[in-house]
Amino acid sequence: MDKTIIISNRLPVQLQIDNGSITAIPSVGGLATGMKSVHSGGDSLWIGWSGLTDEEIPDGLAPEIDKALAKHGSSKVNLTSEEVDGFYYGFSNRTIWPLFHYFLEYSEFELQSWETYKAVNQKFADAILKVAGQNDTIWVHDYQLMLVPQMVREKRPNISIGFFLHIPFPSYEIFRTMPWRKEVLMGLLGSDLIGFHTYDYERHFLSSVRRLLGLEVSFNDIYLEDRVIKVDSFPMGIDYKKFSEAAKKHDENKTGERSELQRRLDMHKESDPEAKFFLSIDRLDYSKGIAKRLNAFEYFLTKYPQYKEKVRLIVLAVPSRSNVPQYQLLKKEIDELVGRINGEFSTVSWTPIWYFYRSMPFENLIDLYTSSDIAWLTPIRDGMNLVAKEYIATRTDKTGVLILSEMAGSANEMNEALLINPNNFEEIADTLYEAINMPVEEQKARNAILQKRLERYNVEKWANDFMTSLKNQKLIDHSYKSRKLSNDILGDIKKEYKKAKKRLMFLDYDGTLAGFHGDPQKANPDEALYGLLDRMSALENTDVYLISGRDKDTFTKWFLPKKYNMIVEHGVWISENGEDFRMLENVKKDWMEKIHPVLESFVDRTPGSFIEEKNYSLAWHYRKTDPDFGQKRATELNTVLTSLIANDDLSILNGNKVIEIKSSNVNKGRAAMRVFSQQEYDFVFAIGDDWTDEFMFQELPESAITVKVGRQKTQASYYIDSIKNVRGLLEHFIE
Ligand code: ADP
Ligand code: G6P
Asked: Domain 592-662's class?
């Protein structure tokens, strides 16, 4: 049976060895807790690190460990303590984690840990390759394994690979500071589908791909050689049922069945029914903003002293990555802060902060969620934050208030919570006040909406959506109408070419015969191209046409003395055998007065863009603009133009970094057909790279050999990977 292979640094359980016996404890953190429910089906295998280094595993115990993991559908990758230092404590958590959470000053760029990161990623990739069948699906998780997709792709070019990043992807300005930024991007691009929690992370990633690798990105598709990689956002949900049912069961528990923790919480509630519990739960991580939260609590007690002895903050901090110096410092800072605030405000009967530094069993987590009036989560940056969702899921009577940082990915889906900026103490203090005083009806109304949403978009739906999208991506990739122009196909085409009595060939210029240049006038033909075209024009029984959107003056200058056949301005003008250009279509120009000022306003507001005035069309070029900004403006211009030209017989052509407006009755397809219908041609060939060439591909007869340069969707029958291959292909017809 085909299986799904989940691969992440953490397995769903962590192993511990006490006196030679092995115990498995559940892993903490969003990835492990979320994926656990996805993994429970029978046809998946989870590969990861056991949490123990090779040195920590006593001789002879390895088979027992494998058995213990197999019970959880898991298998381990072995890591030495040196590897764990460089890969986990090093590059993953001292470089990537701080950088991706915008803690630039904490990021260390050390060559040695990068080397270990690469070597360990290769170990994970090898572990996959050892067990993966051709039809299996690989799902790689998170920032510790960003090179794995490419490493697997190299060995299994056709296997299906998905990647999901559980942390934020930072803006290009941050990401570009990393010395190995290109390697990391290329590693990820081994995938077929790359998922993020939010659209913002997706957008940042695409921007880095465009700017750092210069790859073609169209909407959320990335074109890399002969592959298309899809990027999308899938906000991760929780196992809603597990939390809501645990909470229901908790409500029904008789007094005698309650946990020690619950009994203590109840005692405090009973002693003062008006008192409120604030809950703060996170891994002990600087990105979670725990220290700021404590300071903000102090500020709240000072600003609203009436709540002294009335509120209590329960802080649950789970130990995490304690070998990393920043985490050790943070632990110290929080210990001191809790001590100081408690020292400052405590009374005989009241301790403002209860602080737990440990992992808690699931039942106790439910005790805390269900007993707290307010969940107060203020990460400075957080990929998602599942605790926020878990709190809402446990509120069986729909009461309770969630105060959540805007900087958490989950804030995007939880608008009904009270959203705050974690750096704004004034706002936080006022929001706590608002939360304490929020009428029960309002609490219920807000939570009802949140619960409905979380129940629907739960973790299972999240995983299914991702997997469906991954499957579809593979299908789309194979269902391209056009096929790669292989040597075999080319051999067949050459046979037809030789057999034919009269041949017709259309060659697009920019992006096909010549590369792009910021200044279109500088993309002039080189000597080798003249040589090639001379030889092609001299072919017997073969009519070769350059077909271009270029203006007639430029082509007159470049090609008229050579007597090449030419169609320019998308089909307005034609010149054959060195004769002057004559009009192929009668077109109007009066619309230009109306459109020109619109384009000018876009030039003013988009540095680097410019207008090209042709005889019968206007083009707005944005190749030299900032890629993201240019794209944004292009979308805007498209909208403006569409409404402006609604009643005119004009069309908008979206070319390669250019938007062109021209009469609707002019296009390359129509022009090519006019030439085609003049004689009895029995071999027709057309090659081009952008939208404007699609008209040719569509309109020429089915038997024509149509070739697209690049991998974008096309009506052409074949494609070749890049402009580098065009001239070599044309040489085949001259041999
Ligand atoms: P992160 O992934 O950064 O740790 P999330 O909020 O997304 O943050 O996920 C934390 C996960 O860990 C949640 O599923 C939560 O239930 C679990 N968790 C948090 N605190 C504890 C704890 N003390 N003991 C056990 N699990 C915990
Ligand atoms: C976050 C990361 C996970 C990680 C978890 C716990 O959720 O996205 O990849 O597993 O934190 O961190 P740890 O370092 O203990 O695995």
From this structure: alpha beta
Q: Are 350 and 308 in contact (CB under 8 A)?
A: yes
Determine the pLDDT at residue 363. 95
In the numeric block, the tokens 């030495």 are attached to: 80
In a mutational test of the pocket of ligand 2, which residue from 14, 166, 387 has the highest number of ligand atoms less than 8 Å from its CB? 166
pTM of the model: 0.78
Of the candidate CATH numbers 1.20.120.140, 2.40.50.100, 3.40.50.1000, 1.10.455.10, the domain formed by 483-585+666-734 belongs to 3.40.50.1000
Question: For this structure, is 239 an active site residue?
Answer: no
Per-residue H/E/C for 290-319: HHHHHHHHHHHHHHCHHHCCCEEEEEEEEC
Q: Give the pocket of ligand 2 (CB within 6 Å).
A: 10, 29-32, 142, 166-167, 320-321
Residue nearest to atom 2 of ligand 1 (CA): 30
Q: Which of 320-334, 433-447, 465-479 has the lowest mean pLDDT?
A: 465-479
- Round to whole Å and give the CA distance between 619 and 554: 15
Can you tell me the distance from the alpha carbon of 332 to that of 336, in angstroms, rounded to the nearest whole number? 6
Q: Pairing state of beta strands 718-720 and 705-709?
A: parallel
Least confident stretch, 100-114, 186-200, 295-309, 473-487: 473-487
pLDDT digits (tens, 9 = 90+) for 69-122: 998 899 999 999 999 999 999 999 999 999 999 999 999 999 999 999 999 999
Q: Among 35, 36, 355, 386, which is best to mutate for testing ligand 1, by the most ligand atoms less than 8 A from CB?
A: 386
Q: What is the pLDDT of residues 453-510, one digit of tens each?
A: 999 999 999 999 999 999 988 776 554 567 889 999 999 999 999 999 999 999 999 9
For domain 4-77+125-233, which CATH number applies: 3.20.20.20, 3.40.1170.60, 3.40.50.2000, 1.10.3730.10? 3.40.50.2000
How far does residue 313's CA lie from ligand 1's centre (Å)? 18
On the question of pLDDT at 422 being above 90, the answer is yes
Alpha carbon 726 to its chain's center: 32
Domain locations in the chain as residue ranges: 4-77+125-233, 240-456, 483-585+666-734, 592-662
